[in-house]
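Lab notebook, bench 4. The sequencing result for the construct came back, and we need a structural model before the next group meeting so we can plan mutations. Quick request posted to the team channel:

Model the 3D structure of this chain.
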Amino acid sequence: MLLSAKSSLDLACDFCCNDASPVHSVGHRSAASYPGLIMPVPFFPHGPDPRRASLTYAPLEVPQGPSRARNEGEEDGDSPRMWVSPKADELTVSQLRKDYYRRVRQHALVERVSRFAVFLAESKYDPNHCHDFMRAAVQALCDGLGADSAYMLELVAEAVAFRVSAYAGRAIDTYEPKSGAPCPVHAQHASRAETAAGWALRSNHVVRVDDYAKEERFERESWPEQDTVRSAINMRVQGGKEPYGVLVAQSESPGRFCETDAIFVQTLANLVSQRLACARAEYHQRRMYEEFRRMMNAREEALSIISHDLRSPATTVKLSLEVLRRSLQGAAMSLSPEQIERAVTRANAGINRMMAMMDELLAMNRAEGDTFSLVRGPVDLREVVEAVLRELKEPIAASGSEICVDGPDSLVGQWDRIRVEQIVSNLLSNAIKYGEGKAIAVEFERCDSMAVFSVRDQGVGIDPENHRRVFERFVRVRAPGESDQDKQAQSLRDSNSYGLGLWIVKRVVEALGGSICLRSGLGAGSAFTVELPLSP
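Done. Here's the predicted structure in C-alpha cell form:
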C-alpha cells in the first residue's frame, strides 16, 4: 500500500527517513510487482499515546528487493508518494515496529513534560504547603512512565530520614502514608544495606533497578507496600542549596524502565528542582518585601509617636517657664516658693524626659549605622551591675520589685564598659517595667571562656510567637485579648519608650561577639540571657 507524504503518519515517515535508520525512500512502484510484507501501522486518534489511544490499523506494504533513492518531492503519478522499504539484510518488521513504538513513546513523553512544565509555570507555591505541587509531579511521573506507583520521598529530621509526602498509582485508594511517618535513610555507601533511593540522593544520578529479585547493589525499602515491587527508577530533587528528596517510580514487572524513561525522570526532576528554587526565591522575596513594608509602617508610626511625645514635655516646660516669667514680672498673682519649686521641678522633669528620648534615638542611630566605637578594656561585670542598680534606684522603688543579685564577687572580661552598662541597664529597665512589682533575679557566672548574664522577671511574659519580634525596632508587643485596663497600663509603661531597648541590646551584644536569647510565655515572666566572650 502506498502512503502519502502528507498523511497522518508523518511521525513514522520522519523516523524512516532518518540517516541513522536502515530504512530508505524508494520510487513509486506497483504494489502487484512486489508481493512484500504487510505490517499493521497504528493511527492514534487521541494523540500518540499507546496506553490511551484506541488503535486503528492500516496495512503498510513493504516491498522487497533492491532500494532506489528518491529525491524529496519527486512525483510519480498523480501525487507525491513514499515507499518505506527495508534492505533485506538490515531490517525486519519487528524491528521496524519496535523502533516506531519507541519514537511514539518518546513523543508522548515530550508531550507530558511540556504539559507539566506549563503547569509548573502557572502554579503557585508555598514552601509550607506544597503537597498539591508535589502530588502533581508524582502523578506526571506515574502517568508518563506507566508505572504501578510513584511517590516523593521528602527529607526530614535534619536530612537523616525520608517520609512519603506525595503518592500516585493503582493503590492510591488504599495506600496510607502512615501520617508522614519517617523512613530511615540507610548507609552512605552503595552496598547491600543501601536502598536505591538513598544512593540516588547522595549520587544525584538516575538509579535504575531492573529486578529486585536479582539485584545485588541495593535492597528494597523496608515498607510492607514494597514486597511486590520488581523494578524501580529513582532521581534526586534539589530544593535550592540542599536536596529536597527523591522521586521514585516502581513497577511490579521486571525490566520495566529503559534509558528513555531515565531521561524522562531526570528531566522531570530537573523541572521540579528549578521550580522549587524559583518558587522559594519568590516566596522569600515576597516575605522580605512584606517585612520591609511592616518595618516602614512601624517607623512611620514611631515617628508620629516621637513628635507627639516630644511635644508633650515641651509644652510642660513652656507652661512652667511662662508661669515663672509672669511671677517675676510682678503679675497680679504672685507665686509662693513652694509653687515656684513645683514649676521648676515640672520643667526639669520635662527636659529630662526629652533628653532620655533623644538619647534612645541617638543610640538607635549609632546601632543602625554600625558606628559602634568599642573601647575594650578590663570590665568587672559585678561592678557594672551594682552601678546600674544605683542608677535605677528610684524606678525600682516605684515599681515595688525586689532585685536579687546572684554571681561571683568579680567577673572580668575585655569589653567596652559603656556598652555593657547599656546592656544591663536596658534589660533591667525592661524587667522593672513589665515585672508587675514581683521579684527580679539578676544572675551572672563564668562558663568556660564566656560570661553568662541573665535577667529574669515574673511579669506578664511574652507570647512565643512574638519572641523574634521583641528584638526588632519600634516594636512594643501587646498581649492577645488584653483588657482596656491592661491597655491603659501598657500605655503608661510605654510612654517613655519607642520599642528600641531590646533591639539596641541585641545590636550591642552582637558587636561584642556575643548572643542573646529569650525564654518566656504569657503570664510566666521573661528571662533574657546574654553570653559574652571574655576576650575578643
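The chain has a mean pLDDT of 71.
Will bring this to the meeting.
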